[in-house]
Every structure is written in structure tokens, then in C-alpha cells.
Amino acid sequence: MQSELLLSVCTGALLLAKAGLLENLAATTHHLAIDLLKKIAPNTEIRAGDRFVDNGKIILSAGISAEIDMSLYVVGILGKEKAIETAVYMEYDWKS
Questions:
Q1: Hey, is 44 helix, strand or coil?
Q2: Any catalytic annotation for residue 10?
Q3: I need a surface site. Which of 25, 53, 66, 88 has the fewest CB within 10 A?
């Protein structure tokens, strides 16, 4: 992989699992796709209740609204103040 970070939203986790990129990592996906992810990626730790999961280079979110939390988390890597400022600008009630 030639990227610093790879972000996945919702059922994008299924594609990453099919490509073998989630092998022995933790992952989440949309609640309706959890069973399919378990089937596709038996060596992946499935975190069904998590809104997003950070594996270092690969960060996955559970669904579309969870993607906003994941995105603010990533902005927060660059600086917590910038993430808070972004959430306020968006009028998003972010629980950092």
C-alpha cells in the first residue's frame, strides 16, 4: 500500500476484506453487513459496536454518519483544535 492512511466507509470494509487487507486486524462496517464481513474475513476482529476502528494505516467506519466521526478523528490527528473547529463549523455535535 502506497498511502499514509486508507479510510473506509460503511461496506467498503467488505472490499478491503476481499482484498486481504484486513487480515489479522480489527474492523467494523454497517450493522447489516457484519455477518457478511465475518464470513469474508474470518481472521479479522469484528467490532460491531464501534463507530470507527483505527488500525494505524487503515481506519474503518461503521456507516455514513459514523464516517463523520472518523473524519473528525483523522483531522484530530493533525491537531485536536482543528477537529473541534471543524465540528463547530459544521454544527456537528462531536463527542471526541
A1: coil
A2: yes
A3: 88
What number of helices (H) and strands (E) belong to the chain?
4, 5
Cell of 61: 467506519
Helix axes 80-90, 64-78, angle to 10 degrees: 140
User: What number is the average pLDDT over the span 20-48?
Assistant: 96
Q: Is the pLDDT of residue 1 over 80?
A: no
| Active-site pick, 9, 10, 83, 87 | 10
- Could you tell me the pLDDT band of residue 4, with boundaries at 50, 70 and 90? confident
User: How far is the C-alpha of 85 from the C-alpha of 11, rounded, in Å?
Assistant: 29
pTM of the model: 0.86
